[in-house]
């Protein structure tokens, strides 16, 4: 969205709040009329949930569905809680099965049976089938509504099938080609079908298919879809039978949510389920306080190290001046390594089996960084203070950077190995651990070099 559009939405949000406070709903409706669907989505994200629910009720039905489908899963969940039961049921029935599952994942489990009862039998079976797959699997994010082609069909026959399924299929731009047992044997694009002769067979046009197993991790499947530039990827069960498709827009939505969660946890907060401006203060506090408490407890390690080396500091107080520099450098080095490896994990460039290769590389990278910074620290500290102080600082920087890079590199891999989000064990925990380790290294080197 352009800056001018954001400015328009910001002004509209201010007008909407004022008009709702004055109970001027016709005026609020007039403000909404010229706005596009993306602008209304941004507007809803900027309003409190009570005002957002009022805005949503002012929209025409067709426009309301478009807006609802464009909202983030978290915002959808809160909006549903603010709407009346009859509104929720009607809205739920209009959604695609994969969008229903996204929504149900944001709502209390007790709400699901009530919403599912309002669906037709076919829609209820499609949605309930997806709910049976694990939370993070692609089976829970695929679309079970698709149109297929068969190798022995002609182009004309296939296009007839496509036209008949236009209203129900998730996409028709890429068609899975299946045999008589519903096993995927290839894919064919709508472009190829439309450019071929009516009598050509699908078997002459189809190409090999990239497929995803229904139990595969959703992020991994989404990543492959975007990496290969696919409009849609067939999803199959353990017997290679087609059960759904993953479209490029759903893949992008999965990756956006996963990357938002990783970015939040790397910063030591829980991810917000809706936009920052519309998130209540109590929820912002709740998303941060647990991590702060955990990290505060972890920081007591640093206090204990300082207490253990109190006599060393008392003998040469100049050592205390370099504590912030050393632990800050160590924490930053560890965070850089963790961020790099976490990103490589997400892209599938490394796996937990590569732990020794990663460790070997990060030891060398950390040593080189430490050598560069240590040389600079030795010269500056030696010129300002004494050369033996410079030697302590230089050696400590070499050791701290090497250790920090090594720890930062292997912790995301260890987290993935025990099936924990690598971002959870990323920057905040690494910083806390490296602070304590770096101080121990610092004081041990100081005692050895200075003889105190």
Name the strands of the widest sheet in spatial order.
Answer: 3-4-5
Name the CATH class of the largest domain: Mainly Alpha
Average pLDDT across residues? 84
The overall number of domains is: 3
Number of helices: 22
According to DSSP, the number of beta strands is 5
Order of helices and strands: HHHHHHHHHHHEEHHEHEEHHHHHHHH
Proportion of beta-strand residues: 5-15%
CATH level 3 topology of the largest domain: Tetracycline Repressor, domain 2
Which structural class matches the secondary elements? mainly alpha
Described by strand count, sense and barrel closure, the largest sheet is: 3 strands, mixed
Write the CATH architecture name of the largest domain: Orthogonal Bundle
Measured between the Cα atoms of the first and last residue, the distance is 62 Å
**Rg:** 29 Å
């Amino acid at each position: 969205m352009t800056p001018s559009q954001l400015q328009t939405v910001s002004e509209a949000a201010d007008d909407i709040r004022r008009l709702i406070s004055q109970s001027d709903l016709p005026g609020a409706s007039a403000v909404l009329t010229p706005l596009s669907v993306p602008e209304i989505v941004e507007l809803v994200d900027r309003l409190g949930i009570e005002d957002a629910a009022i805005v949503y009720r002012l929209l025409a039905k067709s426009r309301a569905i478009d807006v609802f489908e464009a909202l983030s899963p978290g915002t959808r969940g809160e909006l549903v809680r603010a709407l009346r039961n009859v509104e929720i049921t009607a809205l739920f029935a209009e959604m695609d099965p994969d969008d229903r599952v996204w929504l149900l994942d944001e709502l209390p489990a007790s709400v699901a049976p009530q919403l599912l009862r309002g669906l037709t039998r076919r829609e209820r079976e499609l949605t309930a089938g997806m709910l049976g797959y694990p939370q993070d699997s692609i089976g829970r994010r695929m679309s079970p509504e698709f149109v297929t082609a068969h190798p022995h069909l002609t182009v004309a026959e296939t296009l007839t099938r496509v036209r008949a399924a236009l209203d129900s299929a998730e996409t028709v731009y890429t068609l899975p080609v299946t045999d008589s047992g519903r096993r995927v044997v290839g894919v064919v694009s709508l472009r190829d079908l439309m450019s071929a002769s009516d009598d050509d067979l699908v078997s002459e046009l189809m190409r090999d298919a990239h497929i995803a197993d229904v139990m595969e991790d959703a992020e991994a499947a989404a990543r492959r879809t975007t990496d290969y530039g696919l409009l849609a990827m067939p999803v199959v069960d353990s017997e290679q039978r087609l059960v759904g498709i993953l479209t490029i827009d759903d893949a992008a939505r999965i990756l956006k949510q996963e990357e938002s969660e990783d970015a939040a946890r790397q910063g030591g907060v829980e991810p917000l389920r809706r936009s920052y401006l519309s998130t209540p203060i109590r929820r912002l506090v709740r998303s941060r306080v647990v991590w702060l408490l955990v990290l505060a407890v972890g920081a007591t390690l640093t206090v204990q190290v300082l207490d253990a080396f109190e006599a060393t500091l008392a003998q040469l107080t100049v050592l205390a001046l370099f504590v912030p520099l050393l632990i800050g450098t160590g924490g930053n080095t560890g965070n850089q390594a963790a961020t790099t490896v976490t990103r490589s994990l997400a892209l599938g460039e490394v796996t937990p089996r590569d732990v020794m290769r990663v460790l070997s590389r990060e030891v060398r990278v950390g040593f080189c960084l430490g050598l560069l910074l240590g040389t600079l620290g030795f010269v500056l500290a030696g010129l300002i203070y004494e050369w033996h102080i410079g030697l302590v600082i230089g050696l400590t920087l070499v050791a701290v950077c090497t250790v920090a890079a090594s720890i930062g590199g292997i912790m995301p891999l260890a987290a993935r190995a025990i099936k924990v989000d690598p971002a959870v064990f990323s920057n905040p925990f690494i910083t806390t651990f490296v602070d304590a380790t770096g101080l121990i290294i610092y004081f041990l080197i100081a005692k050895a070099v200075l003889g105190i």
